[in-house]
């Protein structure tokens, strides 16, 4: 019996070795000689056209949030907000940024004001998902920058800090977005 299995085993071993050492075909050869495509660092560089969009992708696809997207990019927060989260984002519209005193936004977008911009943007983000039905009048939410916002709720109407009305709620793959009509400013 051993005499029968020894040649069979040797033949199988030679077959496997021969397959692994077969000369590469042209497609394999070309694939190894071409230079790889450049990669983008961070979560924002992941290409996925199948899944639900994350909070950054939702904002980037909105004509009403181009100013917010520009600010998030200037602050270097794209990757952070593209991560798994979960996040609750209070997203001011372009019109909300337009209500700021003249020159405020331009000043915040300067490289030397990056820390102040980050503080303001992080004041618009809570860790966790707070759906509208889970929000209560007088509820206080801790924000990423260490500050707090207060929710006012009367029926279906939701306000943040008594100054910004929630205009819409949009789910995202890594959280929820509340579109608001005012920019929230952290208390000093």
Write the layout of secondary structure elements.
Elements: H1 2-20, H2 26-33, H3 55-60, H4 66-75, H5 78-82, E1 87-92, H6 94-98, H7 104-108, H8 114-122, E2 125-127, E3 140-142, E4 148-154, E5 157-160, E6 164-172, E7 175-180
Helix pairs in contact: 4-8
Keywords: Signal
Organism: Pinibacter soli
Signal peptide: 1-22
Structure description:
There is one protein chain. The protein has 188 residues and is of the alpha+beta class. The protein has a domain at 54-180: Roll (FAS1 domain). Helix content is 36%, strand content 20%. The protein contains eight helices and seven strands, in the order H-H-H-H-H-E-H-H-H-E-E-E-E-E-E. It has a seven-stranded mixed beta sheet with strand order 2-1-7-6-5-4-3. Helix 4 crosses helix 8 (114-122). The longest helix has 19 residues, at 2-20. The radius of gyration is 27 Å and the shape is globular. Keywords: Signal. This is Fasciclin domain-containing protein. Residues 26-53 are annotated as: Disordered. Residues 52-184 form the FAS1 domain. Residues 1-22 form the signal peptide.
Give short descriptive properties of this protein.
8 helices; single chain; 188 residues; disordered N terminus; FAS1 domain; FAS1_domain; signal; Adhesion/Biosynth-related; Fasciclin domain-containing protein; globular
CATH architecture of the domain at 54-180: Roll
Strand order of the largest sheet: 2-1-7-6-5-4-3
Strand content: 15-25%
Distance between the termini: 87 Å
Helix content: 25-40%
Low-confidence stretches: 1-41
Q: What is the alpha-carbon Rg in Å?
A: 27 Å
Q: And the CATH topology of the domain at 54-180?
A: FAS1 domain
| Counted beta strands | 7
Order of helices and strands: HHHHHEHHHEEEEEE
Please report the number of helical segments: 8
Assigned CATH class of the domain at 54-180: Mainly Beta
CATH homologous superfamily name of the domain at 54-180? FAS1 domain
Report the major sheet: 7 strands, mixed
Structure classification: alpha+beta
Described by the principal axes of the CA atoms, the overall outline is globular
Mean pLDDT figure: 80
Protein name: Fasciclin domain-containing protein
Keywords: Signal
Biased composition (Polar residues): 29-43
InterPro entries: Adhesion/Biosynth-related (IPR050904), FAS1_dom_sf (IPR036378), FAS1_domain (IPR000782)
